[in-house]
Amino acid sequence: MNEKDKKEIIQEVILTLSKKHRISWASDFHAFEKGRQLTLAGVTFDNFPKGPNTKRTDGDVVAHAIVMALGSATKTGDIDDWFPDEGETGIKSIEYLTSMRKRLIEPKNLIIGQVDVTIICGEYPRMKKKVPLMEQNIAQGLGINLEQVHLKVSSMDGNDEFARLEGIEARVIVSLWEDFM
C-alpha cells in the first residue's frame, strides 16, 4: 500500500470516528450569600462561610455544569430544559447526574469518555481535600469509572470576585461516543 492510500484510509477512519465523537464545554456560576450551605458534586462543605444564592436546588455548580455540557453535546437543551422550575425546592443537584444517565445517555446508547471539571473559588484549599469524594460522586451518578473523571480546584489568583468569595464557578468538558459496536 502506498503512502497516499494509507493517508486516505486514515482520513476516512478519522472522519468516521469524529461523527461518533462529541465534545462539549459548559460552565455554571452562582453568587454567594451568607448563611447558605455550599455543596459541590454532592459534597457538603459545613464550615464554609457562604453558599450559592439559589432558591430551588442546593446550587451545586459542578452538577449543573455537567448537566449543561451533556445537554449541549447531545443538542438536547440546557439544565432548564431537562429540569424545569416546577416549584419544587430542596433538590440535591447531584441526583441530576443519575437522571441524565437514565433519561439521555443510556437510551441514546452513548458512552461517556471523560468528564473534566475545574472549580474556581478563592477558598480552594478547603475544597482540595474533598476532591476524591467529589470525583467518586460524579462517577457514581453517571455510571462511569473513576478514571474517567478528573476534578481540580483553582483560586484564579488575581481575580477579585473569586478571592473575595463573591461567587463560585464550575467549568466542565465532557466527551461522548456513540456506541458503534
TrEMBL record:
InterPro entries: MECDP_synthase, MECDP_synthase_sf. GO terms for biological process: terpenoid biosynthetic process. GO terms for molecular function: 2-C-methyl-D-erythritol 2,4-cyclodiphosphate synthase activity. SUPFAM superfamilies: IpsF-like. It comes from the Bacteria. Gene3D superfamilies: 2-C-methyl-D-erythritol 2,4-cyclodiphosphate synthase. Residues 22-176 form the 2-C-methyl-D-erythritol 2,4-cyclodiphosphate synthase domain. This is 2-C-methyl-D-erythritol 2,4-cyclodiphosphate synthase. It comes from Polycladospora coralii.
